[in-house]
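Entry type: protein chain
Record version: 2
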Amino acid sequence: MSSDAARTARQFGDGPLSRAAARVYTLIVVEVLLLLACLPGLVPLVLLDPDASNIPLYAACVLPLAPALSAALYALHHQRPDLTDLRPAAAFRRGYRINLAGVLRIWVPLLAWLTVVAVNLAHLDVAAVPRWWAVPLVGVAAVATLVWTNALVITSLFAFRARDVARLALHFAVRAPGVSLGTALLLSASAAVTAVTSEAVLALAGSVCALALLRVAAPMTATIQREFTE
């Protein structure tokens, strides 16, 4: 390629319109791959009846969600701004491969515990516990989910040992209240969309949700990058 052609390619890839096009293209590719990765659980999840007896099946259906979301976070974080040098599919596959084991180590225990909580909440009368017991159960589940979300972002973007991920996730849940608040609002909005429409609608906005989570967690990831990796 001549110097003039190279200069033209750089100019084409550096403008605001090109950066916007790169972002849109990346979001579309990541969304398609995210849906494909979640498809084994998404199809039966949509078909399940909303009954308390199906709670364990719901948990099994969402098992592929965390690895897919982790790969989406990785791909969006490593997005190239140059429209002439985009490889979001390769980044997604790499993120899925290198983060799969680490994500499952934090996802499976949380999912199992949330399943137990959901079953107990659905059968409070059978469990012979007071109705007010639901309040602390929901509160603890919410806090655990917030800490886990921190852990998911950390696992997706950094290479730490599992116990260090847990410590950092808990640490930043307290140290960065703005991140916790933003994450809580994002999770609440996702839950509301699912309740009003369906899981499929939320899945269709999966890449946008992943990008929003990256933006919310940016102060945490920047601090980790500065204080724990340099």
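Comment: DSSP finds twelve helices and no strands in the chain.
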